[in-house]
Design a protein that fits this description.
This protein has 611 residues and is α/β, with parallel strands linked by helices. The structure holds 5-amino-5-deoxy-1-O-phosphono-D-mannitol (M6R).
C-alpha cells in the first residue's frame, strides 16, 4: 500500500527513482509523483500509473539533481487525482521547499489541520500527508531533522516517510512507525524504499528501520535516532532477494509467473525441514520454544484475505494432525473482539508481506494478552517476523502479483509442517507422519502435473467467462480452497463469486442458482466425497453448470459435471496444495479474457498497511 523510494548520492536521482517506482508499483498505482532538489524543489505528480509520470517528466532537465524522493499511491484520504498525488509540499508561502512522501495514515490529521489553518496555512489537497508536510514546515527553523522529529511527536497513526528540503539540499530525512521502510546502503549513496525490490539493483546491504526511528542521511554520513533524539545503532543485513527473482522474464504477468513457480517455491519451503524416513519435521525457528510449544492447548491462526484462507486450512490441520483445538480468525476481528486468551494459547499470524496492518495489530494484541506468538511469513525481516516470538519462513521468494498464489501454497505447506511438528510432540505416530511427509515431498512434482492443464482450463473458462455470478463449493480442508478460488476470481476478473462450505449452499445461497450458473465444486476423493456428490446433484437439479476439481482416475464424475479438472490423489490433509492450483489458473484466464490488468487489479494493492 503506497510505495516510497528516495535517493541521495552521486547518481542522477530521476532515473533511479522512476526505476524504483516501477518495481514498487504493485504496492499502489492510483497516482505517482517525484520531487528532486536541483537549484530548488522540483516536483511533478499525476494521477495514473508510473508510466504517465515518466511521460510527463520527459527529459526536463530541472529534474537532473542527485537527491530526491518519489511515490506510487494507493488512496486512503482523498480520491486518486493529480492534487492528491504525493509528494506533498509544506506551505509554499513559507518558502522552505519541503517535500514529503508518505505511506500510512495520520489519524489525527483533522485536528492538526484545524490547528494549522488557524495559523494561516492553506491546503492544496485532501490528504492527511499534506497536513504532515505543513506541520514539518511549521516547525522548520533551518534543521530539517529537528522539524521532522518535532512534527512526528504530534502525530498519531502509522507512517513511513521520506522528506527533503530545498534549503538543505544535501540532507534526506526518513522515519517510520508501523509502515515498512528500509535503507539500502551503497558506496556514498543511500536508496530508501518501502521494500527490497527497489533496492536490490543497487546494493544488497540494507538497514531495516525500527518503529519510532528517524534517520538523517547525507552522501557521506548516516545517523539514526529515536523520536527523543537518542542515537541508535541499527543492524545492517544482507538482502536475500536477487534481481532475477523480481523480473518478469518471459511471462506476460507476474501472477502467471508465480503460479508456475509454485513447484520450485514449495521445494524451497520444504528443503531441509522434512525427514520422511523417521516422520519428523525440523523447524529451526521453533527450537528455542520447543518446550513451551509442547504445552500448547489451543492454536489461533490470524490473517486477512488469502492468508486467512491458509489459516482456515491450518486450523483443520492442527486439529487433524496434532489433535489440538484450533480456529482461524480475521485478524481485524480478533483484534477488537476482546478475544479470550487462555493459558497455553499460541497465536499464529499468517502473512506474505509480514506488514499487513490488521494482522500486525492483532499479533500485538495477542502478545499483550499473554499468548505466545508465531509468524508464518514470507518477507524476511518484516514487522511481523520481528514482533513475533518465533516463526517459520515460507521461503517462496518475492511475490509481486497482487493476487497471492505461491505465497498461499507456502502458507499451507508451512502449516502442514507446523501441524506435523506439533503432532509429533503429541499423538501423531512416526509411521503416520512418515507416510504423509513422503507424499508431501512429491507435491512439487504433482503441482507441475496440474499446471500442465492450463490450456484445458482456459477452454473451460472461455465457456463461462461472460457469466457475472459464480459459486465455489468445498468441504473440510477444501472449503477454504473454495473461498480462495472465489477470492481469486473476484479480485482480478471483477466477477462476483462466493465461496462457501458445500453444505451451506442449501441454507440460502441455492436461491442464486439459475440455468447455466457456473458452480465450481472441489470434489476430490475424501472423507466427505459422497456428500459433495449429493451437493453437485442439488446444483444440477437447479440448472447450475458444475465445474469439478476431482481426483485423477475418478472418471465417473464426468457423468454428473459439465467440466472436470483432475488433480493427483494425495491424502486429504495435503489436497489444498493441489486443488487450489486449477482455481488460480481459472481466475487468471478469466481476467485475461475480460481484458483486465491481472497484476494490478482495480482498487487493490499488494500489501495493506492501514487498518
Ligand atoms: O501480506 P499478507 O499475506 O498479510 O496479505 C493479506 C491479504 O491482503 C492478501 O492475502 C490478499 O488477500 C491477497 N493479495 C489476495 O490475493
Amino acid at each position: 500500500m503506497c510505495g516510497i523510494v528516495a535517493y541521495i548520492g552521486g547518481k542522477p536521482a530521476r532515473e533511479l527513482l522512476l526505476e524504483g517506482l516501477k518495481r514498487l508499483e504493485y504496492r499502489g498505482y492510483d497516482s505517482a509523483g517525484i520531487a528532486v532538489i536541483n537549484g530548488g524543489l522540483q516536483l511533478s505528480k499525476t494521477a495514473g500509473r508510473v508510466r504517465v509520470l515518466e511521460d510527463q517528466l520527459g527529459q526536463d532537465d530541472r529534474f537532473d539533481g542527485t537527491i530526491g524522493l518519489a511515490h506510487t499511491r494507493w488512496a486512503t484520504h482523498g480520491e486518486p487525482s493529480d492534487r492528491n498525488a504525493h509528494p506533498h509540499e509544506d506551505d509554499p508561502e513559507l518558502g522552505h521547499g519541503i517535500a514529503i512522501v508518505h505511506n500510512g495514515i495520520i489519524e489525527n490529521h483533522a485536528a492538526l489541520k484545524t490547528y494549522l489553518m488557524d495559523n494561516g496555512h492553506v491546503f492544496a489537497s485532501d490528504t492527511d500527508t499534506e497536513v504532515l508536510a505543513h506541520l514539518i514546515g511549521h516547525f522548520y527553523e533551518g534543521d530539517l531533522e529537528a522539524s521532522v522529529r518535532q512534527a512526528l511527536r504530534e502525530v498519531t497513526g502509522a507512517y513511513a516517510i521520506a522528506v527533503v528540503c530545498a534549503q538543505e539540499p544535501d540532507v534526506l530525512v526518513v522515519a517510520r512507525k508501523g509502515s515498512p521502510l528500509m535503507i539500502g546502503v551503497g558506496s556514498d549513496e543511500y536508496i530508501v524504499a518501502s521494500d527490497a525490490s527497489a533496492i536490490v539493483a543497487h546494493t544488497n546491504q540494507a538497514i531495516e528501520l525500527d518503529d519510532d526511528t528517524i534517520a538523517r542521511l547525507t552522501t557521506d554520513s548516516f545517523r539514526t535516532s529515536t523520536l527523543e533524539n537518542v542515537t541508535i545503532t541499527p543492524q545492517m543485513r544482507e538482502l536475500e532477494v536477487d534481481l532475477e527473482q523480481i523480473e518478469l522474464g518471459s511471462y506476460p504477468h507476474y501472477m502467471l509467473k508465480e503460479i508456475h513457480e509454485q513447484p520450485e517455491a514449495i521445494r524451497r519451503c520444504l528443503k531441509g525441514r522434512v525427514s520422511a524416513r523417521d516422520g519428523s519435521v525440523v523447524l529451526g525457528g521453533l527450537n528455542e520454544f520447543a518446550r513451551e510449544l509442547g504445552r500448547t492447548r489451543r492454536v489461533v491462526f490470524l490473517g486477512q484475505g488469502t492468508a486467512l484462507h491458509a489459516g482456515m486450512i491450518a486450523s483443520y490441520l492442527v486439529e487433524g494432525l496434532a489433535k489440538i483445538p484450533s480456529r482461524a480468525d480475521f485478524a481485524s476481528e480478533f483484534r477488537y473482539r476482546n478475544a479470550i486468551i487462555e493459558d497455553g494459547t499460541v497465536v499464529v499470524a499468517i502473512s506474505q508481506s509480514g506488514e499487513t496492518a490488521d494482522t500486525h495489530a492483532a499479533l500485538r494484541e495477542a502478545s499483550r494478552k499473554g499468548a505466545m506468538t508465531l509468524g508464518l511469513v514470507n518477507v524476511v525481516g518484516s514487522t511481523i517476523t520481528r514482533e513475533s516470538d518465533a516463526g517459520v519462513y515460507l521461503r517462496v521468494g518475492p511475490e509481486i502479483g497482487v493476487a497471492s498464489t505461491k505465497a498461499f501454497l507456502g502458507q499451507v505447506t508451512a502449516s502442514v509442517l507446523l501441524a506435523t511438528w506439533l503432532g509429533r510432540r503429541r499423538f501423531l505416530s512416526p509411521m503416520e507422519a512418515s507416510s504423509m511427509l513422503e507424499t508431501l515431498n512429491t507435491v512439487p512434482t504433482l503441482i507441475s502435473r496440474v499446471l500442465d492443464q492450463s490450456d484445458q482450463i482456459a477452454e473451460v473458462v472461455g465457456k463461462y467467462v461472460q457469466r457475472d455470478n459464480w459459486l465455489f463449493l468445498g468441504r473440510g480442508v477444501n472449503y477454504p480452497v473454495a473461498m480462495e478460488g472465489a477470492l481469486k476470481l473476484k479480485e482480478i476478473s471483477y466477477i462476483h463469486a462466493e465461496g462457501m462450505p458445500a453444505a451451506e449452499m442449501k441454507h440460502g445461497p441455492i436461491a442464486l442458482i439459475d440455468k447455466g450458473m457456473p458452480v465450481v465444486v472441489v470434489a476430490t476423493r475424501s472423507s466427505q466425497y459422497e456428500k459433495v456428490l449429493s451437493n453437485i446433484e442439488e446444483v444440477r437439479s437447479r440448472g447450475g453448470h458444475v465445474i469439478a476439481v476431482a481426483t485423477e482416475g475418478d472418471d465417473s464424475i464426468r457423468n454428473i459435471c459439465e467440466d472436470v479438472f483432475f488433480v493427483p490423489d494425495v491424502p486429504e490433509v495435503l489436497q489444498p496444495l493441489l486443488t487450489v492450483v486449477p482455481l488460480q489458473i481459472l481466475a487468471y484466464h478469466a481476467a485475461v479474457m475480460r481484458g483486465h490488468d491481472v497484476d494490478k487489479p482495480r482498487n487493490l494493492a499488494k500489501s495493506v498497511t492501514v487498518e
